[in-house]
Amino acid sequence: MSRQLPQRRMSSIHKETKPNEKHPQFGHLPLSTSGPQDCALTGSALLNTPYFNKGAAFPSNERKQFKLTGLLPQDVHNLDQQVKRAYQQYSSRQDALAKNTFMTSLAEQNQVLYFRLIQDHLKEMFSIIYTPTEGDAIQNYSRLFRRPEGCFLNINDIGRVHEDLAQWGGPEDIDYIVVTDGEEILGIGDQGVGGILISVAKLVLTTLCAGIHPNRTLPVVLDCGTDNEELLNDELYLGLRKPRTRGKVYDEFVDTFVKSARELYPKAYIHFEDFGLPNARRILDRYRPEIPCFNDDVQGTGCVTLAAMMAGLHVSDLKLADMRMVVFGSGTAGTGIADQVRDAIAADSGKSKEDAAKQIWCVDKPGLLLKSQGDKLTHAQVPYAREDSDWSGKEHSNLLSVIKEVKPHVLIGTSTRPKAFTEEIVKEMASHVDRPIIFPLSNPTRLHEADPKDINQWTKGKALIATGSPFPPVKYEGKEYEVAECNNSTCFPGIGLGCVLSRSKLLTDKMLVAAVKALAAQSPALKDPDKGLLPDVVNVREISVHIARAVIKQAVEEGVATEEGIPTNDEDLEEWIREQMWDPAYRPLKLVDKQTANKHAKGQSGTKGQKGDL
C-alpha cells in the first residue's frame, strides 16, 4: 500500500453517463435491473406485495392488465409526486422514533418509494433509519411490534433451524444474509430478539448504499435468550424469556445456522452483526477461512478507519510502515481497527503480522495491554499485548503515560468514555508530531472521547480529525476544517456488493485492503488538506462502485471469484457492476402464468415478500 494515494479518476463511462445509469449490454445477467419484471400477481395481491406495488403510479395499461381498475384512484402519479407526498407525511411525525415507525410502515407497503424517499433525503434521514434512532426502535421492539420481518431462530429449537431457514427461497434466491444474536447492539447492549431490527437496518443500508437487491436479502436473529433484566421482566417481550445460553450449546446453534445457510443458499454472503465481545471475533475467525463472511463491528470499522488514516498519513507525508498508533478502548471495534492497520502495514512493508503489530499499542480499562494479564486478555487482544519487560519501571496504567512514552502519530478512541481525550493528552500528542491524527470514534455522540472543536483548538488547527458521528466543520483563527465521519456505510456495502457479484468463495485480507485503498483514494483531503479525510455518505453509491470494482478485481486475481464472464477492463467492469445494482425506480411489469412463474414473480421472494399478522 503506497503512501501516495491515487487521485479520483473518472472513466470514460462516467464522462458520458450519469452515475448508476444502466447499460443494457449486460441486460442478460440474472441480477440485471434493466427491462420489465415478470409478475404473476394481480389485483389486491399485487398491491400487497411491496416490491411490486407502485400505488398510484401504476400506468393505465398495467391497471387494466393486472386488474387494478377500481382498486386505485383514477389519477396516475409519478414517483416524484409520490415522494413529495410521502415526505410531507414523514415530516408531520412529531419525533424521531415516530418518523422511524412511519418509514417501517412505508417499507412494508411500497419498496421502491421507501428507498427513493431516503435516497432523496439521505442526509436528513440517515439518523432516522439507522443510528441513533434505530437503537430506540430496537429497545422498544416488543412494544412497537406490528408485523414480523426476517427469520427468527431460537436456541431451544436447534433441530428446526434448517427447516425454518428453508422458507426463504431456493439456492439462487438469497445473496446477502445479516445475522445477529442481539447481545451488543449499537452501544445499547443486549436487546435479545429486538436485534432482528439491526439485521433489517443493515440490509436497508446495503440496498441504499450499494444496490443489493432488497428482495434477495435475509435478516436473521439468533435468539439465545437475554441477560437484559428489563426485557426479562417485560410482559410484552417477544423473545425467549430466559438468561443467555452460552458455551457448547451456543456454539452448536451458531454452527447449525451457518451450515444450514450455506447448504440452502450456497451463493449467499454472510454478514455477522453486533455479536457480544466474547463471540464476535471468535465466530469470525472460525468461519472466515471457509465461507465468504464479514463482521462489520470488526472489519467494517477497521476498514473505514484505516481509509481515513491513510488519507491523514498522505496529508502529513508519513508512511504507513513508519506510523505509531495508540488505540484507547480495546474491545471489538478497537481490536478490529488494530487488525486492519496491522494487516495493511504487513501488506505495505512486507513485515510479518507479528512485527507489524509492534507499531500498535492498545489501552483498555487496566491500562496498556501486557502479556502478564494472561487470561484477562480476549482472543482479539492477545496479538497486541506488550512484553512486560519493555515497560518495567515505566508508568502504563493510564492513557497519558502511554502517549508520553510512545509518542504516537495516530490516536484512536473506541472506549465509550466521554471526554477521555483531555486537553493535556491532546497537547502532549501534538508536542511530538506535526499533524496528529486523532479519531474519537465512540458512538453515540454523547460518548465521544473529545469534541472536534476542542481538539482543533488545542492543536492550533493541526490535528487531522475523524469521528464516529457527524460533526459540523471546526474553525481556528478564521480558517475552517471539515470533520470526517468514519461511517461504516461508506465501506461495508461496497465490500458486500463486490463479494455478491463475483460470487467469491472467501473474503480475503487482500480484498479488504483493496477496499480500503479504493475508499481512501476518494478522500477529499487528497486534493485539499482542509477537507474531510473521507467522502461524504451522500456520495455512497458511487463510492460503492469503486470499492466493489477493487474487491472483484482482487478476488479474480486471488482465484476466489467464481462468477463467469467478469469483465477484465475497468470501464466494462464498472458498467457490469452498475447494471446489477438495484435502483429505487419503477420497472414495467410483464404478466406471466402463475403455474410456471418463479418465486419472485409470485411475490414470494425475500423478506419484503413475506407477510405476517399482529
UniProtKB/TrEMBL annotation:
Co-factor(s): Mn(2+); Mg(2+)
SMART domains tied to this protein: malic (SM01274), Malic_M (SM00919)
Domain of life: Eukaryota
PROSITE patterns linked: MALIC_ENZYMES
Record GO biological process: amino acid metabolic process; malate metabolic process
InterPro entries attached to this UniProt entry: Aminoacid_DH-like_N_sf, Malic_enzyme_CS, Malic_N_dom, Malic_N_dom_sf, Malic_NAD-bd, Malic_OxRdtase, NAD(P)-bd_dom_sf
Compositionally biased residues, Basic and acidic residues: 13-24
UniProt xrefs under PANTHER family: MALIC ENZYME-RELATED (PTHR23406), NAD-DEPENDENT MALIC ENZYME, MITOCHONDRIAL (PTHR23406:SF34)
Protein name: Malic enzyme
Organism ancestry: Eukaryota, Fungi, Dikarya, Ascomycota, Pezizomycotina
